[in-house]
Amino acid sequence: MRRLKLHWWILIGMAVGAAIGTLLHGLYPTDIVQTTSLYHAVDGIATIFLNLLKLIVIPLVFFSLITGMLGMGNLAQLGRIGIKTFLLYILTSLLAIFMGLALVNLVRPGIGVHVEVPTEAVETEIPESAWEVITSMVPDNLVKAAAQFDLLGIILFALMFGAFLITLEGEKKKTLVNFVEAVAEVMMKMTGFIISLAPLGIAALIARLVSSTGLGIFWEMRWYVVTVLVALAAHLFLTLPLLILLMTRRNPYRFLRAMSSALLTGFSTASSSGTLPVTMERVEKGAGVSRRITSFVLPLGATINMDGTALYEIFTVLFIAQIHSGIDPSFSLSIGQQLLVAFLGLAVSIGAAGIPHAGLVMMVIILQAVGLPIEYTALIWAIDRPIDMFRTAVNLGSDSTITLIVAHSENQIDESVLFDA
Fold it and tell me: With 0-12 CB in 10 A as exposed, 13-18 as middle and 19+ as buried, what is 276?
């Protein structure tokens, strides 16, 4: 018998959770349902799953960021191509984030969504000014910062550690690099294990949610789904082509057509890393980019460039903030605080692994950073798979676009290859 893939198990878990939640919602009034033994079992499983996510997220971000920097090699030797590539990756990620910011504030899909999610209070002080943001980036105690989910401090320390690690030479560098890469690999395996529990965890989360709200919550999510997909499509089919046109004077849509098999592979697998061989083949043979450029730019992009993930995270966190403001009128995020969330989205997207659902794992720490209960992720798990597929295609489109732009600037394109699909 052919083994079912994880996303099919997740769909089964969603259906089972919805069925259990509907049963509880139909049998008991809202004030009684939380006293039943079945609800207690569901609540316990959901809590364990959320705790596992919180358990791994700090070390996962920390070591992913360091290994991402190590992937850049010796900063002094990378020179022009390395700096150019890195700046372009930051540029496209910022453009994606501001696309998400603009649409989530324009459409406001979370306003009017009525949901009672069982939550725990999160005591987090959100910086109000630029100086508060700057000072909060420098913790006086790293262990305390990690315990308090102080993401800004963790990110700064990880970036400093990675930068100075690159400058080491000889055996000390080799030892530390091997240690960091080994821990990062262990964290990836732990993440994979926890994600493998997702069908059970999601079933419990959805059952807990539906037992209080009924199935109507999924209909209320429709504007979120439509708007986030529009934002992702706008970045892939408008923003990135405009960059190609402005920076290379080449036909961007012929290039996207040449990359179609890689984009479809990424869409179906929801894995940037797993699609890397196909992406490299298409950029080289479909667009004529030299192997010298693709062998550096694309693997780096698969590690640190996650436009779709960054857009998705900022959009979803602000969507959740809009829902929460309807429950707690005293809660709101100013434009300055939204820009802080944008910075966090950029930072964690750099550390996001190219594996399915990694963006959702990374979102947990952003929610913690702005004082939003992570139980709201129950709303997103139910519809994450199709959105994950779309944002992976956007990630690949961005990697390919930047590879083309860098190759054009370095005169490393075989002009005899005319974007062959």
Answer: buried
Q: What SS3 state is found at 413? A: strand
The CA–CA distances, whole Å, from 297 to 77, 237, 347, 400 equal 15, 21, 19, 9
- Whether 266 contacts 272, CB under 8 Å: yes
Query: What DSSP string describes 296-346?
Result: HHHHHHHHH--HHHHHHHHHHHHHHHHHHHHH-TT----HHHHHHHHHHHH
Q: Which residues contact 127 (CB under 8 A, 6 or more apart)?
A: 133, 136, 337, 340
Q: Would you put residue 357 in left (φ > 0), alpha (ψ -120 to 50) or beta?
A: left
- Domains observed in the chain: 6-409 (1.10.3860)
Tell me how far apart the alpha carbons of residues 64 and 348 are, in angstroms, rounded to a whole number: 9
- How far from 58 is each of 16, 139, 146, 336, 370, CA to CA, in Å? 31, 15, 7, 24, 15
Spatial separation of the C-alpha atoms in residues 111 and 298, rounded to whole Å: 39
For 130, other C-beta atoms within 10 Å of its C-beta total: 11
| Residue 139: both structure tokens together | 């913790």
Structure letter (DSSP) for residue 169: -
The CA-based dihedral angle spanning residues 252, 258, 264, 267, taken in that order and rounded to the nearest 10 degrees: -40
Where in 97-245 does DSSP place strands (E)? none
Per-residue model confidence as pLDDT tens digits over 76-135: 545 677 788 888 988 999 999 999 999 999 998 888 776 665 555 445 455 555 466 567
User: Could you report the per-residue pLDDT of 172-214, keeping only the tens digit for each?
Assistant: 888 998 998 898 888 878 877 877 887 888 788 778 877 776 7
Residues present in the chain in total: 421
Residue 119 tokens, joined: 């939550």
The sign one gets for the Cα dihedral 399, 384, 338, 65 is negative
pTM here?
0.71
* The Cα angle at residue 33 between residues 28 and 34, in degrees rounded to 5: 175
Q: What end-to-end distance do the CA atoms of the chain give, in Å? A: 36
Q: CA 393 to CA 269: how far, in whole Å?
A: 10
In sequence order, the β-bridge partners of residue 289 are: 413
